[in-house]
Model the fold of this input.
Amino acid sequence: MTKSPLFNKGFQNAVLSLALKTIKLRYKNSFLGVFWSMLNPLIFLTILIIVFKQINHIEHFALYALTGLIFWNFISASILQVLTSFIDNAAILKSINLHPFCFPLSAMVAAVFNLLLTLIPFFVIMFFLGYDLSWSFLAFFPFTIITAIFVLGLGMLMGTINVYFRDIQLLWTTIIPAFFYFTPIAYTPELLSENQRFLLKLNPFYYFIESYHDIFYRSAMPSYENFGMSLLLAILSMAFGYVAFNKYRKGFISNI
Done:
């Protein structure tokens, strides 16, 4: 039986080194550092407030929308980083004998670390908007691990296919804006009809964003439906992603 690379100390050190390199490059020569990660959500929040001011009936709309925006950015950006990790690290993959799983995993580790840094300005703004810290916040940590597993699996699945067919990256960047509007970020599911809500729940991102809304906006634990579906999606995503990666990784070097 082949030993998992996760238990190899050299593999672990490589993952941490690559993750730290990604984080350092992101904030190199940046005066505001991690606060830049809040700029995009705040710009979108301003636009959403202006556009939906007259038609939304969500109490503390800014709090609701900002929560959705922060974690939508985390999920969508992380998937893209994992998806492109094999291509982005082609030179390392060709020159150093590293297990290819290092690259998507290090991209995910860097993304989670960046999210934790983003929580600093996020909480400052959230408290300003009226957020009350509750015990439900503790659910953030295990749920973010579930989210990271989902993102890693989906990104690795698409990243593996992308090595052989570069259209996957282009396709993903084309359709992800549609998923933004198909996810309850600027509106609540209750505003939609029952049929529309059924369609909304076909979107896998629905369950993750709604769980974060439960934790931060509703100050409650994620509902059984949202948590259960998120966990199931994470398991399926990781299973399909790793099986595809493991089957086709031998051809990476000759195709990147």
Notes: The mean pLDDT is 87. The first helix runs from residue 9 to 27. The chain has twelve helices and no strands. The radius of gyration is 19 Å.
